Amino acid sequence: MKTNVLSLKSFALIALLALSACVSDDIADVGDLEDVTGPTPFYNFSEITFAEFDCEDNELSANYQFNFQAGSNLAVNGTQYLWSITDMDNNNVDIQLINKNLPILQLQIEAELADVIAIQEDIEELEFKIPCEDDPARVAVMEAQIADLEIALAAAENALSDTTLQNVADLEAQILALDDATLQDQELIIEFPGPGIYNVGLTVTDNLDKSDYAERLITVNQAVPTIPVPEIEEASFEDNSLFDGTGDGRDSWRVPSNAAWSPSGGGTTVIQINTDTSPGVGADLPDGVQAAKFPASGDRVAYQEIDVTPGAEYVITYFSAFNLGADGQMKVSILSPNTSSFAEAQLEENIIASRIDTNAGRVVNVFKQHSITFEAGENESVIIFANNSGDEARLDAFNIVVRQ
Questions:
Q1: Disulfide check for 335: which of 166, 274, 339, 381 has CB 3.0–4.6 Å away?
Q2: Total-model pTM
Q3: What class is the 251-402 domain?
Q4: Which residues contact 156 (CB under 8 A, 6 or more apart)?
Q5: Quick one: pLDDT at residue 207?
Q6: How far is 285 from 301, CA to CA, in rounded Å?
Q7: Mean pLDDT of all residues in the chain?
Q8: Cα pseudo-dihedral 58, 64, 65, 66, rounded to 10
Q9: pLDDT tens, residue by residue, 106-163
Q10: Cα distances (angstroms) measured from residue 237 to each of 141, 207, 241, 364
Q11: How far apart are CA 238 and CA 398, in angstroms?
């Protein structure tokens, strides 16, 4: 038995020595046998396209840019990279290459000049809106706002410290010193000439001169204008909240005709205003110090027509509260723009979307948020319409967003 055990130990030792003799000290953990493993290339990409449009949604400019980052399998690291870009007919494409560090440095400059850039962007936004505005009063207000912003911009520029100015100068120098991007970069930004489908290929070569190629089809979509968010005027029923600093919180919510839109067939339909005289004490309003008040008689209504983009989908949110004096409800509807009376507002053919909330289970004067989702369809405008019945009710803090 002992002889057999010793023989086994001797065999194991000889095998271990033989294996050790095959290990090279030049390449750790790799034997004298040729390493035939080659690279497996792959790449990731993300779109960073940006575009500008005029009031009529005509494209003024567009940069169809994508960020590409190359890689290979973990077993073999690629040491050389080569990109190729062709169209669907395998023709070369006239592209622009951008150093991946350029947008990073530009963002750092924007961070240093955050206050200045914020004012510049406000000015640019107003300058963009003015040619699109038909109301001379609104144009005058925007021009006055630009004048005030230009004064603020000069003050912000004068307030920049020497340290900030030096930091910006250093970053600008780094931008000028950036190497030109090449098709041999592991990561780069490629700007395509326009929308289309492109073959983007990647060849990865390792340090043993082994290489492989991978290719993907990249679809560059036509840039589309951002859908503007509609404006709900006096959305929280606050005084002096109109574009020109005026308004009593109700002006934007008046019906075109009391006679046509009165639930009772006559009399005023103008909403009342409920004011929080002690903000911060008790049940606060959702926004500001005023809310729309609808008496229990149900003879008051809120009406506002807003612009929308055909084909877009929107979500309107708002808050309601009840007095709990009797059973009651609040109805908020989105109506087609051709609705011309209270009676027509009850017809399903004119109701794009609606929501009815009752006061069952509610807490007196405590606001609760609701939402309505609707599609604009072919409409360029819609009507927000609200009326109550049975119990005194309040509405506050309307908001609208584009549903992506």
A1: 339
A2: 0.76
A3: mainly beta
A4: 115, 116, 119
A5: 83
A6: 20
A7: 89
A8: 120
A9: 999 999 999 999 999 999 999 999 998 989 999 999 999 999 999 999 999 999 999 9
A10: 21, 70, 8, 20
A11: 12
Residue type, 43: Y
283 or 329, greater pLDDT: 329
* pLDDT tens by residue, 25-62: 444 444 445 556 778 899 999 999 999 988 888 888 99
Quote the CA–CA distance of 2 and 268 in Å, as a whole number. Answer: 114
Domain extent listing, the chain: 42-220, 251-402
